[in-house]
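ugh ok so i messed up the first submission bc i forgot one of the chains. this is the corrected input, ALL of the components this time, i swear. 606 residues overall. if the numbers dont match what u have on ur side tell me asap before i send this to the collaborators (the ones from the other lab, u know who)
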Amino acid sequence: MSTQTYRPLYQRPKSLSPVRNSYCPGCHHGIIHRLLAELIDELQIQERSVIVAPVGCSVLAYNFFEIDAIQAAHGRAPAVATGIKRVHPEMVVITYQGDGDLAAIGTAEIVHAANRGERITTVFVNNANFGMTGGQMAPTTLIGQKTETTPEGRDPLRNGFPIRVAEMIASLTGPVYVARVAVYTPPLVAKARNSMKKALLAQIEGRGFGFVEILSTCPTNWGLTPVQATKWLEENMVPYYPLAEFVGGPQT
Amino acid sequence: MERVLMKGTEACAEAAIKAGCRYFFGYPITPQNEVASYMSKRMPEVGGVYLQGESELASINMVMGASAAGARAMTSSSSPGISLMQEGISYMVGCQLPGVIVNFVRGGPGLGGIGPAQSDYLQATKGGGHGDYNLVVLGPSSIQELVDLMKDAFEIADRYRNPVLILADGIIGQMMEAVQFKFEIDPTTLPDKTWALDGAKGRTKRLINSLDLVPERLEQHNWNLQAKFAQAAETELRWEEFLLDDAETVLVCFGTVARIAKKAIENARQKGIKVGMIRPISLWPFPQAPFQKFMAGAKRFLVVEMNAGQMLQDVRLAVCCQRPIRFSGKPGGTTFNPEMIEKLIWDLEEEGSK
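and heres the new structure output, hopefully the right one now
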């Protein structure tokens, strides 16, 4: 009989399903999933949360969280979330969307859900391409970035410019929290967690719409190793997509 | 029971509320805008939600969300808007979510016009969106019938966990008639939906989903859906038999045209013509039984529609080459009057006696 008790320092969050996820090695979805699950546990909302999964790499997100879930059509997650929230205002409704889903086909739905100040939380994972379909250009693809459909690099004369979604959402009056974060270093992970918490609290406290854009790697489609991809993100994405709290931060 | 003079669109909205619907999502489009304006006033009075979506795409997906949350939810629109909703309707079918969609059909294709039409019959009854599916489609020919069918629509949608579509037209929406509301359902008394998303409290998580990447499992899901459609095809048949017992000329009309045809039939009968009408009310499932029932006495069929010949295809399947079928159509937002239909009846009669 041991009298010693052990306190776990690190374990799988209750809200994160004990299953293998479907993400590529080096992709940041796994980190972001874990952060979201930790926050669902910490805020004690597991029994009243629902996640709306998008179309794209995180289409199977419903398999990875131990909360109610629904899978929406491409880009429509904010509209589906709106319907759920209007029926169950006491629930915490989260959309989890990639940049193909949210920044291309779903721009109308996200802009208007944000503008209505819908009491939902959106986690927006931006990896500068359509991952699931094999790495085509997304609205967020950087100038000069090579993808399956911009073999010579994105040319703004032909394909326009990368959309800064967080800034666009922040220009609206409806949202109460808008930030862009990244998760490629431990301090950034801690900051990202804090931002996601603020976005969830905005909903839980009934204050309004919360939006967190998270820059992510896509080593498979970028054709880089996980370490190279992290470096590429830091050197190319962060300068164009500045990490900041645009609405609801300490300065605003 | 009190009779109220109401416009079709407003009666439709009130009927939905009395059928226990508390969530309406829609986007403006003529000729059905009064549904939304009525809902925006009435829903707050009954503790419900009216929300104007940023598009028909958003509106149907809001219906999907509200339905997934366990509520009776609906939208209404007109043809171009219904086209946009097809994606969401297909997802609702795949996810096995109930919901009611009302289409006050206007002339097409494209932006078309705002005159009344029946040109969305094939879209409504043969699926509409992608995938193998059917919706139960109900076609009212009066405002009272629209009111009564709204209640049926919500019940059928819940029974099969599948959307139901009401196929009305601009005339049904815009005219006024005296109606009675013979039902009033308190949504809090409806049975719990054991699949709805309301938070995994004291239970395992629930998932509402139309995706399955394993083809064999998706095949099975499709067969499960087909079993529901087969059940609905047997159970949800509705039609009216009008003066058919001795009818030699059998008209087949639905919705507004059937209403106009009745006058024409009555007028022709006064002049001794043996004419009657089969009026399908459920457009899917399409009622085949009355065709066989009256085939022996029928010499010919006359299909009249406010389109270029859409229900005609179902009538051909039901008649199965046993009798000649004549068609007269008016696509694009124009309609018939009783004299026009009576003339069609007389023309057939004269051809038949030659």
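quick check: The beta strands of chain A are 49-53, 68-71, 92-98, 121-126, 175-182, 209-215, 244-247. that seems consistent at least. Residues 186-204 of chain A form the longest helix (19 residues).
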